[in-house]
Amino acid sequence: MADHAFVERLRARFPGASVTVAEPRGELGIEFPNGDWHAGCEALRDEFGFESLVDLCGVDYLGYGSDEWDTDVSSEGFSRGVEGRGVGRFKYGESTTQQTEGLEGQTIESIPQRRYAAVAQLLSVQHNRRVRVKAFAQNDDLPIVASLTGLWPVSNWFEREAFDLFGIIFEGHPDLRRILTDYGFVGHPFRKDFPLIGNVEVRYDEEKKRVIYEPVTSVEPRVGVPRVIRDDARYATASGESAARKAESPK
Asked: How far apart are the C-alpha atoms of 160 and 148, rounded to whole Å?
């Protein structure tokens, strides 16, 4: 839990950053401008005692906040797909689109001004505190964020994973190369404009006597049906009935 004094101390130390507290859990987060990412993390380590980096990942904000399924309660059920080629709903060669309200047809979905971000989770064992640190890349065509390997060597493989899956370049990384996908893999599979069916499929060619890659031709986009957990009033009803019986019972 983040205490008020510590939050104000962070805001005073980093006036150019955005310090937030997510209630009711009290989760502390700080977002640095891209140019202050490395220096800010170094200050968090040396001045605030966050000696451990426990995780680092990439985030793609394309389609952020848009729903792929309409899950409102109605007599028609909840599994009604939203119109348009949402994230994961488009085929090879297509683009993400959204339904144009009040008009026929679809339009290309708007691209957020800041799309790619690096997010690190820091831990202070000595002070029993955690903080989430984030910075957006300035250029979506070539997203670049400073590497944290010089501060926390454990970030090495985390940054390689974010590079492999999101295409984020970590400037200053000693060995930035793919870590999960194949050597000849094309694209970055965790980007929201990467089709869930993939860009290429692999098969063995009898004539060439080797495995070949070719554009996806026979696979339809996969869109999972969400699991919706609705409010269950039975427990509140039972509690109310129990309280009513106790109030009516003779003393």
From this structure: 12
Measured CA to CA in angstroms, residue 156 lies from 31, 53, 56, 170, 172 at distances of 21, 11, 10, 10, 11
- The DSSP 8-state label assigned to residue 75 in this structure reads T
Show the tokens assigned to 225. 């049906």
Q: Are residues 92 and 168 in the same domain?
A: no
Asked if 152 and 221 sit in the same domain, the reply is no
Cα separation, 144 vs 216, whole angstroms: 30
Q: What is the spatial distance between Cα 226 and Cα 222, in angstroms, rounded to a whole number?
A: 13
Mark whether 188 and 243 lie in a shared domain: yes
What are 57's strand-pairing partners?
A: 119
Sole residue written with tokens 């194949």 = 182
Query: Same structural domain for residues 147 and 204?
Result: no
Lookup result for tokens 């554009």: 215
Give the range among 24-33, 46-55, 126-135, 235-244 with minimum mean pLDDT.
235-244
Cβ(168)–Cβ(71) below 8 Å: no
Per residue in 118-133, pLDDT (tens digit) is 999 999 999 999 999 9
User: Measured between alpha carbons, how far is 21 from 134 in angstroms, rounded to an integer?
Assistant: 14
Domain of 93 in residue numbering reads as 63-110+181-251
Domain count within the chain: 2
